[in-house]
Design brief:
The chain is of the alpha/beta class. The chain has a single domain, classed as Vaccinia Virus protein VP39 (Rossmann fold), CATH 3.40.50. The chain has eight helices and ten strands. Helix 2 crosses helix 3 and helix 3 packs parallel to helix 4. The chain starts with 11 loop residues before the first helix and ends with a strand.
Length: 271
């Protein structure tokens, strides 16, 4: 490995492959034994995709933060890659499932290097010292999209299998804020706090998706990039293609309504 590489442990060819602006989402498949806890959460993300980010932006034993950790995909990736992970989760249900997932899908010893703090990330972030983390990676709530009236997808994939359809009913959950502007403003405040605890010249990766609210298409990723422009330096945007998702007849036969089969990974740097 090039001695000048202070970011990761990748060789040049490996490094170049990870700089592609399009990734294809990888998953275990819904029937895999290690997908049973993950799929209980209404908006999980693949630990394989998060592993690629952690592998690129950190070295072994470095400290990773996920302020919206859910059922601990980030911490599972950290454990398997020998990084130290700290997650924050508002819901006790998801926190407990995340800890169970680490024990079942990694091992009991993983709980010695991985921790999930229960509570509001706006309060917990204030307890960390400045310049503390080597990398931050997360997928925040997409406002209240999980609270809307059940569509084809929710009925077939969630309700039919008796799975949760929203994060929580907690008044502290920013996904439950009444307006998109309030939600976005509060989310930006949280990422401002993340900037303080991230080390200088280190990175934050934010996995997000655009979405629809009633008849309006919300370009969430671009709104967030614009809102964070005074906090971080944008280094790139990856498209995370979700080719395995089902197609649903939204809008048919009256209007064009997209099946949103991709997410964005916003790569930002503290400078």
């Amino acid at each position: 490995m090039d001695k000048r590489n202070k970011l990761n442990c990748l060789e040049g060819k490996e490094w170049i492959q990870e700089t592609k602006s399009i990734w294809y989402q990888k998953g275990l498949g819904s029937s895999h034994p290690h997908a049973q806890i993950e799929k209980q959460h209404p908006a999980p993300f693949s630990f394989q995709d998060i592993s690629r980010l952690i592998n690129f932006f950190t070295k072994p034993d470095q400290l990773v933060l996920d302020p919206f950790v859910g059922v601990a995909s980030t911490l599972k990736a950290c454990a398997l890659l020998e990084r130290k992970g700290i997650g924050i989760e508002l819901s006790e249900k998801w926190r407990n499932l995340g800890l169970e997932r680490l024990k079942i899908e990694v091992n009991e010893e993983s709980l010695q290097t991985q921790d999930i703090l229960l509570g509001d990330c706006r309060e917990i972030l204030q307890t960390f010292p400045d310049n503390h983390f080597d990398f931050i990676v997360t997928s925040p709530p997409y406002w209240n999209i999980l609270s809307k009236k059940a569509d084809h997808k929710v009925k077939q994939e969630r309700l039919a299998n008796n799975l949760a359809t929203k994060y929580s009913d907690n008044v502290l959950d920013i996904g439950n804020l009444p307006s998109y502007k309030e939600f976005l403003d509060e989310l930006v405040k949280i990422f401002f706090m993340c900037n303080r605890v991230l080390k200088l010249n280190k990175y934050i990766a934010i996995v997000v998706s655009d979405f629809r609210h009633q008849s309006n298409f919300i370009p969430f990723h671009s709104d967030l990039v614009s809102s964070l422009s005074n906090i971080f330096k944008l280094q790139g945007i990856k498209v995370l293609a979700q080719n395995s998702k089902k197609l649903y007849p939204y809008g048919y036969p009256f209007a064009y309504v997209e099946n949103i089969h991709h997410q964005y990974i916003l790569i930002l740097k503290k400078v």
